[in-house]
């Protein structure tokens, strides 16, 4: 079992309840990363479902979630031959923290009938940029749990030269040897710095709602993650993400609504 497997493990208490221990290795200055939290929830959902793959997940982030013990409470909405739907609530200290609706199904790995091309050309990985590791006082432990190699124009904000467009592009994998799977993809869709950084904003940008779709089971190797936004207004922004695997297949899509960074 890898560190990520252990950090996302869900232990069955009964058919509707799973105990989890939220790991402090996936924090963003204190709060835990939303994609990591979804991976934890999906461990419980898929364990209880007749179908193994979380093809659609929609989540409302109600409160800031901290490391420590928590519970995933499940309510089965539908269980059919091809699709099951589950309501899953992450509860910490007796209070709901995240509400989700998850659709599970069984993906067979069939070749796509048609596919669009990736949204942008990426330079070779050796020409991409790895940002420095933050100091321990920052509480930014997420960065040490994964590897990101950025397309240089999309991290100009780090040196005070943002591109002026909400965008981020990077190669992604876990820091430990671990082939990508649906739970890693849940982390990947929320792994990039907020796209508003490239538009000149800074600070913690909390996700309010995130929906992501598992489109295919990923091949081993690096993933390529493309992030973009369409509108920044009234203190809110949207972020759309596509994840492509090492074989050139689109494996995940997401859209989230978040608050513009503060502090």
Automatic annotation (TrEMBL):
<feature type="domain" description="Acyl-CoA thioesterase-like C-terminal">
    <location>
        <begin position="126"/>
        <end position="260"/>
    </location>
</feature>
<dbReference type="InterPro" id="IPR052389">
    <property type="entry name" value="Sec_Metab_Biosynth-Assoc"/>
</dbReference>
<dbReference type="Pfam" id="PF20789">
    <property type="entry name" value="4HBT_3C"/>
</dbReference>
<dbReference type="InterPro" id="IPR049450">
    <property type="entry name" value="ACOT8-like_C"/>
</dbReference>
<protein>
    <submittedName>
        <fullName>Acyl-CoA thioesterase</fullName>
    </submittedName>
</protein>
<dbReference type="InterPro" id="IPR029069">
    <property type="entry name" value="HotDog_dom_sf"/>
</dbReference>
<dbReference type="Pfam" id="PF13622">
    <property type="entry name" value="4HBT_3"/>
</dbReference>
<feature type="domain" description="Acyl-CoA thioesterase-like N-terminal HotDog">
    <location>
        <begin position="25"/>
        <end position="106"/>
    </location>
</feature>
<dbReference type="InterPro" id="IPR042171">
    <property type="entry name" value="Acyl-CoA_hotdog"/>
</dbReference>
<dbReference type="InterPro" id="IPR049449">
    <property type="entry name" value="TesB_ACOT8-like_N"/>
</dbReference>
């Amino acid at each position: 079992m890898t560190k990520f497997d252990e950090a996302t493990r869900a232990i069955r208490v009964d058919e509707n309840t799973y105990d989890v221990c939220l790991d402090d290795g996936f924090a963003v200055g204190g709060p835990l990363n939303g994609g990591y939290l979804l991976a934890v929830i999906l461990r419980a959902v898929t364990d209880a479902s007749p179908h193994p793959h979380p093809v659609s997940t929609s989540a409302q982030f109600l409160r800031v979630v901290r490391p420590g013990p928590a519970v995933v409470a499940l309510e089965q909405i539908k269980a059919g031959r091809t699709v099951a739907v589950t309501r899953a609530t992450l509860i910490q200290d007796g209070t709901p923290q995240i509400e989700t609706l998850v659709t599970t199904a069984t993906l067979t790995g069939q070749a796509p009938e048609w596919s669009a091309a990736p949204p942008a050309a990426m330079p070779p990985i050796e020409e991409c940029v790895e940002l420095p590791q933050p100091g321990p006082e920052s509480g930014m432990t997420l960065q040490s749990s994964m590897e990101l190699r950025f397309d240089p124009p999309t991290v100009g904000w780090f040196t005070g030269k943002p591109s002026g467009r909400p965008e981020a592009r990077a190669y992604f994998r876990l820091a430990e040897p671990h082939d990508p799977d649906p739970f890693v993809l849940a982390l990947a869709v929320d792994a990039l710095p907020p796209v508003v950084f490239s538009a000149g904003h800074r600070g913690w940008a909390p996700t309010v709602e995130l929906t992501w779709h598992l489109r295919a089971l990923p091949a081993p190797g690096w993933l390529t993650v493309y992030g973009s936004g369409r509108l920044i207004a009234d203190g809110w922004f949207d972020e759309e993400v596509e994840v492509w695997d090492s074989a050139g297949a689109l494996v995940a899509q997401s859209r989230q609504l978040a608050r513009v960074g503060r502090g």
